[in-house]
């Protein structure tokens, strides 16, 4: 049985999510091939070939894959899928874009957001905003699986000796084109893969307080900034900072929840963090039920002191 992992990349380098997805594939058992579809992405293919456990990289280098549009990417996967028992992609915005299309066109049931592999056809995935885990068996000939990256340690970047094989482009579907992409540039680590995340909630009271107090703390810790949905909705932080059920799922080594109540929808995105520190003035806030360290007090007093002490 051979597994095809779809690489997430920006035509220059692999995203961290690809390494986690390959780690998930290695738990299934069988040869692992990686599809690198893009334009001018030879270096990405070479890097993928070095990842531990990768037997082959299939490189589709053509202008129609530059923007990795769902229609063209799905057509390419479908044209090559007969050689595979599984297709895996990260359950990031990238994988969520084209994998349902692949599943629908194959008349298969997508197994979404897996956190564990039980066997080649059985996977574990969270349901009810992470409050329960479902064990799901897929009877499909080709299993279409997206992977919760935070649930799998990254595969080693070195150690593989995969061969890179050129793959012909499938037809251009011509159904969509990328008009523009706004990429938030930040010197901070990416929220989804950061080792430390500093998140703020409605307790901050304003955008000025959120940025003025949290950024110095994040600078000291080399952390990514996160936020609750209430903080995002109130305009304290941009949308892509949101952690939770309808935001990003993170599992850093250290997660700070500051002025965040700990509603289940927020917990769904961060409760697998290794160490959780909560700062909240209300002792009864549910965040303290998941926190490893809890500080009851006023964040306007505690955060500057904590930053100064670091
Ligand atoms: C379908 C659905 C999906 C959702 N998805 C998400 C999601 O992805 N992510 C998410 O976060 N939420 C999500 N929510 C919203 C969620 O239910 C909560 O409303 C939200 O998480 C609350 O954010 P908060 O804790 O910042 O605000 P609040 O609930 O207002 O809590 C603020 C906290 O700050 C504390 N505080 C106030 N002032 C201070 C101070 N000076 N010092 C210290 N502490 C202070 C308070 O004690 C309180 O605990 C979703 C809701 C629904 C219905």
Notes on the structure:
Helices cover 28% and strands 26% of the residues. With 310 residues, it is of the alpha/beta class. It has a seven-stranded parallel beta sheet with strand order 5-9-4-1-2-3-10, sandwiched between helices. It has a five-stranded parallel beta sheet with strand order 12-11-13-14-15. Strands 6-7-8 form a three-stranded antiparallel beta sheet. It is elongated. It starts with a strand and ends with a helix. Flavin-adenine dinucleotide (FAD) is lined by residues 201-203, 228-231, 242-247, 259-261, 263, 265-266, 269, 280-282, 285, 298-300. Flavin-adenine dinucleotide is lined by residues 201-203, 228-231, 242-247, 259-261, 263, 265-266, 269, 280-282, 285, 298-300.
Task: Lay out the secondary structure.
Elements: E1 2-6, H1 16-28, E2 31-38, H2 42-49, E3 54-61, H3 70-80, E4 86-90, H4 93-106, E5 110-114, E6 116-119, E7 122-127, E8 132-137, E9 143-147, E10 163-166, E11 196-200, H5 207-221, E12 224-227, H6 229-233, E13 254-258, H7 264-270, E14 275-280, H8 287-290, E15 293-296, H9 299-309
Parallel strand pairs: 1-2, 1-4, 2-3, 3-10, 4-9, 5-9, 11-12, 11-13, 13-14, 14-15
Antiparallel strand pairs: 6-7, 7-8
Helix pairs in contact: 3-4, 5-9
Bound molecules: flavin-adenine dinucleotide.
In short:
The chain is built from nine helices and 15 strands. The protein is of the alpha/beta class and 310 residues long.
Query: Hey, roughly how much beta strand do the residues contain?
Result: 25-35%
| Low-pLDDT residue intervals, each spanning 5 or more residues | none
Please tally the β strands and state the result. 15
Strand order of the largest sheet: 5-9-4-1-2-3-10
* N→C terminal distance: 51 Å
Helix content: 25-40%
The SS-based structural class is alpha/beta
Bound molecules: flavin-adenine dinucleotide
Largest sheet: 7 strands, parallel
User: Residue-averaged pLDDT, rounded?
Assistant: 95
Oligomer: single chain
The shape, in one word, is elongated
With helices defined by DSSP (H or I, 4 residues minimum), what is the helix count? 9
Compressed to H and E, one letter per element, the order equals: EHEHEHEHEEEEEEEHEHEHEHEH
């Amino acid at each position: 049985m051979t597994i095809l992992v779809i690489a997430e990349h920006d035509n220059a380098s692999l995203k961290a999510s690809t390494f986690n997805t390959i780690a998930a594939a290695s738990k299934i058992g069988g040869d692992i091939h990686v599809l690198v579809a893009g334009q001018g992405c030879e270096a990405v293919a070479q890097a993928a070939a070095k990842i531990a456990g990768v037997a082959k990289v299939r490189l589709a280098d053509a202008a129609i894959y530059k923007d990795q549009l769902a229609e063209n990417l799905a057509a390419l996967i479908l044209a090559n899928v007969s050689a595979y028992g599984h297709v895996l992609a990260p359950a990031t915005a990238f994988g969520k874009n084209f994998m349902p299309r692949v599943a629908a066109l194959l008349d298969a049931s997508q197994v979404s957001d897996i956190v564990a592999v039980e066997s080649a056809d059985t996977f574990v995935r969270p349901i009810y905003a992470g409050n329960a885990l479902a064990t799901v068996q897929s009877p499909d000939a080709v299993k279409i699986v997206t992977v919760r990256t935070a649930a799998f340690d990254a595969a080693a970047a070195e150690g593989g000796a995969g061969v890179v094989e050129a793959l012909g482009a499938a037809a251009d579907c011509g159904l969509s084109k990328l008009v523009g992409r706004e990429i938030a540039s930040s010197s901070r680590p990416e929220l989804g893969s950061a080792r430390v995340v500093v998140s703020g909630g409605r307790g901050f009271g304003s955008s000025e307080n959120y940025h003025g107090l949290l950024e110095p703390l994040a600078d000291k810790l080399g952390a990514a900034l996160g936020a609750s949905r209430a903080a995002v909705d109130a305009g304290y932080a941009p949308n892509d900072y949101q952690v939770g059920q309808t935001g990003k799922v993170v599992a850093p080594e250290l997660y700070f929840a500051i002025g965040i109540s700990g509603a289940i929808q927020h917990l769904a995105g961060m409760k697998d963090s290794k160490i959780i520190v909560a700062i909240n003035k209300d002792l009864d806030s549910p965040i303290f039920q998941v926190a490893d360290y809890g500080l009851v007090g006023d964040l306007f007093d505690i955060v500057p002191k904590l930053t100064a002490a670091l």
